[in-house]
Amino acid sequence: KITYGQLLMIFFSVAHDPTQWNRQGPDTGSQYRSVIFYTSDEQKRIAEAYVAQLDAAKVYSRPIVTKVEAFKAFYPAEDYHQDFLARNPANEYIVYNDLPKLENLKKDFPDLYKR
After folding, report:
1. 49 and 2 in one domain?
2. Is the pLDDT of residue 24 over 80?
3. In this structure, are 9 and 46 located in the same domain?
4. In which band, very low, low, confident or very high, does the pLDDT at 115 lie, cut at 50, 70 and 90?
C-alpha cells in the first residue's frame, strides 16, 4: 500500500521535472503539463502544502509550475499505450526516458518498487 504523501514524493523526485511548463522530458504540449489531481479537500490541502514546502526550501532552481486541480474524469490510454514497457523494452523512448526513472525509483524508494 502506498500513501498520498509517498505518491507526492515520487511525483516530485522521480517521475518528472515540476519546473517545466507544458513539457516532460522530450514531450511538449499542454497534455504534458504538470498537474496533481485531488479527489478531496484533504488531498488538495496536502498537495498545496507539499508544493509550498518544496518552494520554501528552494529544492528546485526554477519555480514549481505544477498545478493542483480537482479531479473531473479519468480517460484510459489507448491500447497501444498499455503495458508499453513490457511490450517494447528496447524502445528508444523507454531506454532514454523511462528506464532511468525506474532505476531512480528503485534506488530512492526500494520498499515501494515492484517489478
Report:
1. yes
2. yes
3. yes
4. low
Distance CA 79, CA 72 (A): 22
The predicted pLDDT at position 113 comes to 86
Range of the domain at 66: 1-75
Neighbours of 1 (CB within 10 A): 4
Q: Which amino acid is at 106?
A: K
Give this prediction's pTM.
0.84
Strand (E) or helix (H) holding 48: helix 41-56
d(CA 34, CA 69): 11
Q: Looking at residues 73-78, what average pLDDT do you find? A: 94
Instruction: Write down the residue that cell numbers 508499453 correspond to.
Output: 84
User: Cell triple for residue 42?
Assistant: 484533504
Partners of 37 in the β-ladder: 69
Asked if residue 88 and residue 100 are part of one domain, the reply reads yes
Phi first, then psi: give them for residue 23, nearest 5 degrees.
-160, 140
Residues 11 and 65 in one domain: yes
Spatial contact of 2 and 20, defined as CB atoms under 8 Å apart: no
